[in-house]
Amino acid sequence: MKRIPKSVFFIVAILILLFSYTSVFGVTYYVGDNKETVIKGMSDIRWGTDIRGGVEATFEPADNYNATDAQLDSAKSIIETRMVSTGITDYELYADYNTDRIIVRFPWKEDEKDFDVESAINEISSTALLTFRPGQEAEQTVVGSDGEPVKKVPKGETKNTVLMDGSSVKEAKAGINNDSSSNSASQYAVYLKLTDKGAKTFADITEKYTSQVVSIWMDDIMLSAPTIQEKISGANAQITGNFTAEEATSLANKINAGALPFQLQTASYGSVSASLGENSLQAMAIAGVIALIVIAIFMICMYRLPGIIAVIALLGQMGITVAAMSGYFPVFNSFTMTLPGIAGLILSIGMGVDANVITSERIMEEMRGGRTLDGALDRGTKSSLSAIIDGNMTIVIVAIILLLVFGPFNVLSFIFGQSTTGTIYAFGYTLLVGVIANFIMGVGLSRVMLRAVAGYKFARHKWLFGGVKDGE
Asked: The pTM is what?
């Protein structure tokens, strides 16, 4: 068995416990009466409408504008872009084409105290500005809800130079790229129809920036960064790339949203009461702590030293899952936690317990078969690995399917309805993150700690690993 330095056990254990503590409680300090957050914790999680309530609003075109169905889809797209970019995943959003209305329901912000409905609505409904800018320099890059990088807040020349805005775009449509090879699969593009003034401006831009990137932004979020192939004259242009049909349609809707011929106004709004309430959240938190204590006692009594290590790994797994939701890591947005999301977290913790139980049982079996402690640790950890991977990979596949079907693309929303997307998406997200955390903690670091602690003389007793006492 490959030896690992003994001190690694304490180093890894302390780091896991420190990380778990900071991910749950965060790190803050006060400057006078102002609270400054260094590291976000559970208090920074945005709770879903089922737990904390939220806002419901109906939007309509201002000045009695008679919007087309495509224009309503574009307006709906801009609202969805704003919510997803700010980490709001538990939302209901749909358009009523008969009455030209857009209905949206979303949860309160994580730090909301005044519960000001109008302020909450302004967060997602203010007029968007579509701009074309040189390059693609950005202050930060985060991971979007679809797993792709999203650039936010332009900087440098990209920030200082606006080449064209959305008023120059009459219409954007998704379609098949006519230049695609007949021998290859269909490629999709976004086709732009420009105003007369916009066509002249765009011709000048494409001539100046040939073979360079001109990025497209909505407010402070970059939608696309195509490279100009050649000068484009006339009122028609196209944006090409490795688009799927859904991606091309989404980009076209967002461009149209930034060039809408009307503004949205709020027709009605109100607050939404939580179906469970914060008292239920507190009850679930208490139940979770009790369950964790019971599991810890069971694991330690049954498996002794591996049980202690398993508890440390479970705390680390829980820490990673909470960190992925709270915005602990700056590269990831905070996530909206719903009741199904909590269910996904609990299920992933159960998978973590299962992984540690399988490993501990295999080690005990090897020791009962007469192997030495080192031999039992080596064979037990190796023989349990395939079973753990098989069990966890099936959960990963299910979680990914849930994210794809009920995520921003709404692949099957025509069957299940768009109002279900945010709720089911939260379940798939926490389930996937929890299983990944289990691989890191329950499969990776827990085995490192096991092999490291076995180097100490006090731990060289089979009884501490669930075997019989030495000499029996």
From this structure: 0.64
263-266: long-range pairs with CB below 8 Å, 24+: 263/61, 263/62, 263/127, 264/59, 264/60, 264/61, 264/62, 264/75, 264/102, 264/125, 264/127, 265/59, 265/60, 265/61, 265/62, 266/57, 266/58, 266/59, 266/121, 266/125
Task: For residue range 31-89, list pLDDT tens digits in order.
Answer: 777 777 888 888 888 787 777 778 888 888 887 888 888 888 877 877 776 676 566 76
Nearest to 262 by CA among 410, 118, 63, 126: 63
On the CB side of 285, how many CA atoms lie within 13 Å of its CA? 10
Non-local (6+) Cβ contacts of 215 within 8 A are 132, 133, 134, 135, 136, 154, 158, 222, 224, 225
Query: What torsion, rounded to 10 degrees, do the Cα atoms 206, 207, 212, 217 define?
Result: -30
φ and ψ of 231, to 5 deg: -65, 135
Radius of gyration, CA atoms only, the chain = 27
pLDDT digits (tens, 9 = 90+) for 332-362: 667 778 888 888 888 888 888 988 899 888 8
| pLDDT-based confidence at residue 15 (cuts at 50, 70, 90) | very high
Instruction: Give CA–CA dist 63/70, Å, rounded.
Output: 18
CA distance 201 to 163: 8
Q: Which residues lie across from 238 on neighbouring strands? A: 191
Q: What is the pLDDT of residues 213-247, one digit of tens each?
A: 999 887 788 878 888 888 888 888 877 767 777 77
| Residue 284 amino acid letter | M
Cα–Cα nearest to 132, from 188, 54, 31, 215: 215
Sheet-wide strand order for 149-154: 138-143, 149-154, 221-224, 214-218, 130-134, 164-165
Q: Is the dihedral of CA 427, 429, 434, 439 positive or negative?
A: positive
Q: Which of 382, 359, 346, 342 minimizes the C-alpha distance to 442?
A: 359
Strand bridging mode 92-96 / 101-107: antiparallel
